[in-house]
Amino acid sequence: MSVALRSRRRDELVSAAARLFSERGYHGTSMQDLGDALGLLRGSLYAHIGSKQDLLFDVVDQGARRFLQRGEHAVHQVAPSPQRLRDFLVGHAEVAIEQLDAGRVFLNEWRYLDDSLQEDIKTKRDAYEEMVRGILRDGVAAGELRADLDISLAARLVLSCGNWIYSWYRLDGEMSPSAVGEAFANMIIGGLHQEEAV
Amino acid sequence: MSVALRSRRRDELVSAAARLFSERGYHGTSMQDLGDALGLLRGSLYAHIGSKQDLLFDVVDQGARRFLQRGEHAVHQVAPSPQRLRDFLVGHAEVAIEQLDAGRVFLNEWRYLDDSLQEDIKTKRDAYEEMVRGILRDGVAAGELRADLDISLAARLVLSCGNWIYSWYRLDGEMSPSAVGEAFANMIIGGLHQEEAV
DNA sequence: ATTCTACAAACAAACAGTTGTTTGGAACAG
DNA sequence: CTGTTCCAAACAACTGTTTGTTTGTAGAAT
User: Is the CB of residue B154 less than 8 Å away from at least one CB of chain A?
Assistant: First the structure.
């Protein structure tokens, strides 16, 4: 009990956990591994956290919060729907790549959270998806996007390519995060097909 | 040693592994769990397999092979590029949903394979991605797809929405697998934006 | 300045249980 | 009678967590 909620050591622990959970998975990472990463015995870690689950939640929640924060910025912009969608995807790509580890854990390991903690994260994830649906609905209403659009499915298309970034993006690559977001937005909005006439 | 490569029991074991690895992850599933699922002691499983890694490889490889098989069918069709892309996505969605467990393991747990086994899977995954790039290149050459397309990135867009199906598709949902594939193909090819004139 | 107090941080050791795997022998099949 | 299939038991190592105790270091009291 009575665990320090914030301290230098705890922050080190959380970011070591982000790295290791991302590389080896939650169940593939032992308290031993985490202790080794900080140069401590595994028992000593319990001076800073309540349990291994706590650590997982901290990492996942950190990932979720950053996406939400950046998403709100794009949503609350005053601009045409396609422009806000573009901005949303750029922001998503930037956040995803600036926190590759926490983001990967957010996407892959959240399901290993205990039920109550999992609910918290699901709520945040739903809110994030709702942002995209909102943008799309506005676009249809304004006549900027196809009228026959299946909003949920289109939102999934947008989020899919954003979330899949983790599995292929390499930091030594030639594309910047925002360029990736821009490119995806252009393809999604404009389509891959050759337009007949302009 | 001298492990039966094929038998009824082994098949049962592999599909139990697919289900459990998919639900709890590779490291989150113990040999105990697998034994319980078949009504055997965990030690008894070693009459049918060499190691836990063997099981993981079998599940992942099974997932990979089915995607490749179905993908080839779409690629070798004689039809315009957009039509082949549509067929590829429909096939992908069908395979993904008909083998939800193995597919999830193929996508999420392959990284826990030992190096040499991992190479095998990477090769198959690359071949699958190359199918999509091939279709896209043909489409650009034939003037059916935009000339300025970034082939690799467009392929990633296609594969992203295909692979992300696992995280949202529910079997009790109202959309059939092929309808999902069709819908994604339409959005990707045509774009979300409202076309000015037709 | 020197003592006393308070506290966080870490160790060392143990907890009870689980991990993947191997072995020797039994039951049962063709 | 030869294999296959399984159990029973053990293997050493590792799991997450708790305990009692030591250490370093602040601030307050002397």
Answer: yes
Looking only at Cα atoms, what is the longest distance across chain A? 69
**Residues of chain B scoring pLDDT < 70:** 1-5, 196-198
Contact with chain A for residue B168, Cβ under 8 A: yes
Domain extent for A139: 54-190
A118 located within any domain: yes
Q: Taking CB atoms and an 8 Å limit, are B82 and A161 in contact across chains?
A: no
Cβ atoms of residues B59 and B105 within 8 Å: yes
pLDDT at B7: 82
Q: Nearest-CA distance from A129 to chain B in Å? A: 12
Residue pair B72/B131 in contact (Cβ under 8 Å)? The answer is yes
**A 123-142 residues inside an 8 A Cβ radius of B:** 136, 139
Distance B41 CA to C22 C1' (A): 14
In chain A, which residues have pLDDT < 70? Answer: 1-5, 196-198
* H or E element at residue B53: helix B52-75
Q: What is the pLDDT of residues A14-59, one digit of tens each?
A: 999 999 999 999 999 999 999 999 999 999 999 999 999 999 999 9
Output the pLDDT for position B3. Answer: 45
> Residue A152 domain-assigned?
yes
pLDDT of residue B197: 44
- Token pair recorded at residue B70: 């179905």
First to last CA, chain B: 67
Asked if A180 is an interface residue toward chain B (Cβ–Cβ < 8 A), one would say yes
Domain count within chain A: 1
**Is residue B105 a part of any domain in this protein?**
yes
The amino acid at residue B193 is: H
> Domain of B159: which CATH number?
1.10.357.10
- Among chain A residues, CA nearest to B140: A194
Residue of B nearest to A144 (CA): B194
- Structural domain includes residue B152: yes
What does the pLDDT read at residue A68? 97
Quick check: A144 and B193 in contact, CB under 8 A?
yes
Is B167 within 7 A of strand D by CB distance?
A: no
B177 in contact with chain A, both atoms CB, cutoff 8 A: no
